[in-house]
Amino acid sequence: MNQPSTVDRRKFLGALGVTVGGTGLAGAGLMAGPQVVKAATEPAKGKIPDTPFRTGHMTFFTSAAAVLGEPSHKGHILAAEEINAQGGLLGKRKIETITADEAAGTDANVKELRRMKLEGKIDLFTGVISSGNSPALAPVAEELGILTIFTDGCTDFVFDVADPEPKYVFRITNIQSADGITAALGTAQTWPNVRKIAHIHPDYSYGRNAAEHFTLAIERLLPGAEVVSESWPKLGTTDFTSHITKAMSANPDLLYTSVWGGDYVAMYKQALRYGLFDKMKVATTLALGVAPHAIGKDHPEGVLSGVHSNYYFTYPGGDRWPLNKAFVQRYYKRWNEYPNFQSEGAYVALYMLKTAIERANKLAGGWPEDEAIISQLEGLGMDTPSGYIYIRPDNHQGYKDAVTGFSKNLPDYPFATWDPHRVITIPIRNITAPAGWAKPGKGHNESTAAADWIKKTWPKATG
Amino acid sequence: MSILIIQILNSLFYASVLFLIAAGLSLIFGVMRIVNMAHGTFYAVGAFVTAWLVGRAVALGVPTVWTFLLLPVGAGAVALLGVAIEPLLRPFYRRAEEYQLLVTFGLLLILEDVIRLLWGGLPLSADPVMDLLPSVRIGGLIYPGYNLVVIGIGVVAAIGLWAVIYLTKFGVILRATSQDRRMASALGLNVALVYVSAFAIGCFMAGLGGAIIVPTQTAVLGMGIDALILAFVVVVIGGLGSLQGALVGALIVSFVRTAGIQFFPEIELAVLYLIAALVLLVKPTGLFGTA
Question: What is the ipTM of this complex?
Answer without folding.
Answer: 0.87
